[in-house]
C-alpha cells in the first residue's frame, strides 16, 4: 500500500507542476500565475511569465521536503515562497492568497514589515524586477499540502523597495 500511495503522490505531482500544450499553459500553471498577475496588475506592475524550468526546480525542492513538509527555504538563488497546509483540502489559490494577504503588513515608506508580522512573501510576489515564476504543489508523506513557488530574478533585496 505504501508504494501505491507513493506512486499516486508522485503522479499527482507530475500532473500538477506544469505543462504547455500547443502554446497554452496548463490549468494548474494558470492557477498559480493568474492570482500573481492580478495582484501585480493592481499594483501597475508588469506580469510574470510562467517558467517550466522554475516549476521543475520548485518540484525538486518540494520533493526534498516531502518527508517533513518543513517551511525551510532552499539555498538556491531564486526568490522562494513556501506554503504548508494541514491535510489535502488546500488549493493552489489558498497558498497564493495567503502570501498576498500579507500586503497590509508591508510599510512601503519604511520598507519594512509591521512588527511581529510577515510580509516578504507578498513583497516577492510584487517585486518589480522579477520576471518569471514556476511553482509546484505536492502532498507530503503526512498527507499535508506543500506548495513552493520559485521567482527569477529573486526579490527582497536588502535596501531596495519592491516597486
UniProtKB/TrEMBL annotation:
<feature type="domain" description="SCP">
    <location>
        <begin position="27"/>
        <end position="159"/>
    </location>
</feature>
<dbReference type="Pfam" id="PF00188">
    <property type="entry name" value="CAP"/>
</dbReference>
<keyword id="KW-0732">Signal</keyword>
<dbReference type="InterPro" id="IPR014044">
    <property type="entry name" value="CAP_dom"/>
</dbReference>
<dbReference type="InterPro" id="IPR001283">
    <property type="entry name" value="CRISP-related"/>
</dbReference>
<protein>
    <recommendedName>
        <fullName>SCP domain-containing protein</fullName>
    </recommendedName>
</protein>
<feature type="signal peptide">
    <location>
        <begin position="1"/>
        <end position="22"/>
    </location>
</feature>
<dbReference type="InterPro" id="IPR035940">
    <property type="entry name" value="CAP_sf"/>
</dbReference>
Amino acid at each position: 500500500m505504501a508504494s501505491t500511495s507513493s506512486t499516486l503522490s508522485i503522479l499527482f505531482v507530475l500532473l500538477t507542476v506544469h505543462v504547455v500544450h500547443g502554446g497554452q499553459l496548463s490549468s494548474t500553471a494558470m492557477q498559480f500565475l493568474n492570482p500573481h498577475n492580478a495582484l501585480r496588475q493592481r499594483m501597475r506592475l508588469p506580469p510574470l511569465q510562467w517558467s517550466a524550468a522554475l516549476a521543475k526546480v520548485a518540484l525538486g525542492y518540494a520533493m526534498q521536503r516531502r518527508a517533513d513538509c518543513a517551511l525551510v527555504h532552499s539555498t538556491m538563488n531564486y526568490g522562494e515562497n513556501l506554503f504548508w497546509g494541514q491535510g489535502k483540502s488546500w488549493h493552489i489559490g489558498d497558498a497564493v492568497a495567503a502570501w498576498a494577504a500579507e500586503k497590509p503588513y508591508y510599510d512601503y515608506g519604511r520598507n519594512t514589515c509591521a512588527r511581529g508580522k510577515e510580509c516578504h512573501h507578498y513583497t516577492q510576489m510584487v517585486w518589480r524586477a522579477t520576471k518569471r515564476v514556476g511553482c509546484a504543489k505536492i502532498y507530503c508523506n503526512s498527507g499535508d499540502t506543500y506548495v513552493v513557488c520559485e521567482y527569477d530574478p529573486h526579490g527582497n533585496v536588502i535596501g531596495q523597495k519592491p516597486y
